Amino acid sequence: MNEIFYIDYSTNDSKTYSDLFSDIKQENKYTNICQYDNFYKVFKHIVTSILLDKEVVLLDSDFTISEKEDLLSDVEIFETEYSFENEIDFNHLKKKISESNSNWKITLFTSGTTGKPKKISHSKSTLIDNIRINEKRINDIWGYAYSPTHMAGLQVFLQALLNHNTIVKLFGLPKTNIISSILKNKVTHLSATPTFYKLLLPKETSFDFVQNVTFGGEKLPETLKNQLSELFPKAKFLNIYASTEAGALFAAHNDTFKIKPNLQSYVKVENDVLYVHKDKVGHSDNIQFENEWYNTGDIVEIVEENPLTIRFISRKNEMINVGGYKVNPHEVENLILTFEEITEVKVYSRPNSVLGNMICADIVLTKNKSLTKQELIQRLKNHLQDFKIPRIIKFVETIEKTKTGKIKRA
Amino acid sequence: MEEKLLNILNELLQSTGRDKITSINDEMKLREDLGFDSFQLAELTVYIEEEFGIDIFEDGLIATIGEIKAKLK
To answer: N or C terminus: fewer CB in 10 A for chain A?
Structure first.
């Protein structure tokens, strides 16, 4: 059993599970809005929300003020006081987790398909009940390479927390610190996007203690997989399919996902599109169900009918995957069109070996108006998170349209 | 080749509001010394590929100017 809950090598932060619960006990105010730079504070806030059985709303720390106002416009923000009479510890958390009547709700935001990010709320049943809690996992040490406010990071955090594991922060660290952190803390489990794993190449050392290397968020290129096998000679490789709407649903050792027996009746493929039954999907006002089925927008190929086994061909057609972060080109275009210097814009992607994809924009300037690339990017920084901002900007005369007047997309 | 590379680096530095540099040396680190983040490194690959026809990050991330020059030789 690991006494250490969280380690951040770059700030020399180290917290035990006792620290976590005593820090929670010491506070007496709780608000449902959770937005911090510091991962420990995010984790502490989530644990508090579970202990209090109250809602928590996760916001990326880099959402700008205007983005935040927009996102929270239909959220009921509250603040309440609390106190724990007696000492609290991990057993209290376990007890709360096992209680059946739970009001606990966790809300995240995902890029929507038509402009504004979608608010999705999960309960214990769609999120926590699927976490694998197992005696065998008791000594797992997790290298944490996701943002805690997105589904992947949330799943890894809950997995580590509920198994009383140690979380070693790797996200945002430079290559040398990532390597030191993994080695020094004898990390056994890594879960990250392919873009993150690329940071470890070219190979400087091999990580012999790592038992599990999990991939999510982006398609894993075969060459990368082979290079990583040299870095992690003893590890099992696992691909995870997860979405903010449905959590982490499937895992596979290669690119074919065999649907587990308990999920077979909640998943179906129609016209090459993957559908998930609403019982397995979080709650959102923006999710449209087709007869109780959620259209994931992911195009799949059926490898076997029974048990249902699939391979992913493409995910959510128009979304652009930048290093695991999904960008909705419509959201960016709509924002750019609010600038008076610009009459037309097309936001698109191009493949890139650093980020997987890069955001580009073709801009048609308004007659007699001028705007430089620097000015445009500076303005966008006030409204958008970094990964959504186009970096390759071309000023053009016209943008090609389809017969119905929509922007022609490849 | 060094001059073209210097120009590309300076364009990138300027577009992010930083000062131009007058020279480059092989030891200079892209992230730590030039202050580039992943987005800027992604842009860098595009400009270098347009100029030299080579994707410098194709085999993995490189860290210094010297390593870039080695790829472009």
So the answer is: C
pLDDT in tens, A295-307: 998 889 999 999 9
- Is pLDDT at A410 greater than 60 in this prediction? no
pLDDT band at A115 (very low <50, low <70, confident <90, very high): low
Mean pLDDT value across residues A275-303: 91
Q: Which of A74, A68, A71, A143 is nearest to A112 (CA)?
A: A71
Cα–Cα dist A399/A129, whole Å: 49
At residue B64, the 3 state secondary structure works out as: strand
Residue A159 to residue A97: CA distance in whole angstroms:
13
Q: Is B50 on the interface with A (CB under 8 A)?
A: no
CB atoms within 10 A of CB A201: 18
Q: What angle do CA A141, A147, A148 make, to 5 degrees?
A: 75
A207 phi-psi bin (left φ>0, alpha ψ -120 to 50, beta other): beta
Mutation test of the interface with chain B: which of A224, A348, A352, A359, choosing the one with the most B Cβ atoms within 10 A? A352
Q: How far apart are CA A393 and CA A202, in angstroms?
A: 30
**Which helix (H) or strand (E) is B41 found in, with range?**
helix B38-52
This complex has an ipTM of: 0.84
User: How confident is the model over A129-153, as a mean pLDDT?
Assistant: 91
Q: Quote the CA–CA distance of B47 and B35 in Å, as a whole number.
A: 17
Q: Which residues are paired to A120 by β-bridges? A: A108
pLDDT tens digit sequence for A247-278 = 888 989 888 999 989 899 999 999 889 999 99
Contacts of B31 in chain A (CB under 8 A): 174
Q: Of A130, A50, A132, A151, nearest to A95 (Cα)?
A: A50
Cβ–Cβ under 8 Å, residues A146 and A171: yes
What was the pLDDT predicted at A239? 92
Q: Average pLDDT for residues A228-243, to the nearest whole number?
A: 93
Using the predicted structure, report yes or no on whether residue A210 has a pLDDT greater than 70: yes
Chain A residues 285-324 within an 8 A CB cutoff of chain B: 323
Query: Could you tell me if B53 lies within 8 Å of chain A, comparing CB atoms?
Result: no
Q: Chain A window 187-206: which residues touch B at a Cβ cutoff of 8 Å?
A: 195, 198-199, 201-202
Is residue A77 very low, low, confident or very high in pLDDT (cuts 50, 70, 90)?
very high
Between β-strands A141-144 and A189-192, what pairing exists: parallel, antiparallel or unpaired? parallel
